Amino acid sequence: MTSIDVSALAQPLDFAALLHPQAQPAATSGAPPPTGKATSQGAGHAGRAIVTRADKRRTAGLRKAAGILDCLPAVNEVLWGVLYGYFDLCHLLLALLHRIPGTCLHLRCATLSLSLRNAHELGALLDIGAVRRLDCLCSDFMAKQDKEIFTALLDTMHQRGQRVAAARSHCKLLLLEMDDGARWTLSGSANLRTSRNAEAFTLCHEAAPAAPVHDFYAQWFDEVSAAHAIAQAQP
């Protein structure tokens, strides 16, 4: 079983190690560059870290997401909630994977858009074994308008043998098939990236073989993804 210890993410370096366990320096790894101004002085001093405002916002968001999931729904129950712009849906995904037992055998992710950081976080979930298979469905609008981010997503997923599709879809879904038979469906208005707006969500917990909500969305997702998959570029 792979556990993601959200409580250990209070320090930005811990968070970076979790999401980029084999990362090289940013100039060669392809990792998204940090944003914001440094809040601690560390340049030129071995063993000291530079912590950016973006790092602090990110780790604070993880703590807030973990707090939302203090009370998870039991099998055949649904949790309703509202997210605010303090964090994004990817925070909630990380917190959920930490809270529920087992490994995610298949993660289906549908989003209108996502950020560069989100793309690398999805890749990192595969790298650490928290997710075995990952399909990502984005909007064709994002593929055309946010070409840099979409190219990064394609590179991140294709390097790991995963599927990316772009279609006329406005759906926001996270569908998790766990190795213990649990099926989780997170749906609502939120994209993976933050929009700084209030976003509604529902989290449905089912268990195979009786998982009609998860399976309904998964069937639709697979049909659309198969029809609109982006072929991997040949070397």
Summarize the structure.
36% of the residues lie in helices and 20% in strands.
Structure description:
With 235 residues, the protein is α/β, with parallel strands linked by helices. It has one domain (6-227): Endonuclease Chain A (Endonuclease, Chain A, 2-Layer Sandwich). It has eight helices and seven strands. It has a seven-stranded mixed beta sheet with strand order 1-7-6-5-2-3-4, with helices on both faces. Helix 3 (53-68) crosses helix 4 (89-99) and helix 5 (116-127) runs parallel beside helix 7 (147-158).
Q: According to CATH, what is the topology?
A: Endonuclease, Chain A
Taking the sheet with the most strands, its summary is: 7 strands, mixed
What general outline do the C-alpha atoms trace?
A: globular
Q: What's the domain count?
A: 1
> What would you report as the Rg, rounded to the nearest angstrom?
17 Å
Mean pLDDT: 77
SS field, number of helical segments: 8
Helix and strand composition category? alpha/beta
Number of strands: 7
Beta content comes to: 15-25%
Query: What is the name of the CATH architecture?
Result: 2-Layer Sandwich
Order of helices and strands: HHHEHEHEHHEEEEH
User: Could you tell me how far the N terminus lies from the C terminus, measured between alpha carbons in angstroms?
Assistant: 35 Å
Give unreliable regions as ranges: 1-52
Record the SSE blueprint.
Layout (H helix, E strand, L loop, with lengths): L11 H8 L6 H4 L23 H16 L8 E7 L5 H11 L4 E7 L5 H12 L6 E6 H6 L1 H12 L4 E5 L5 E6 L3 E7 L10 E9 L4 H16 L8
Parallel strand pairs: 2-3, 3-4
Antiparallel strand pairs: 1-7, 2-5, 5-6, 6-7
Helix pairs in contact: 3-4, 5-7
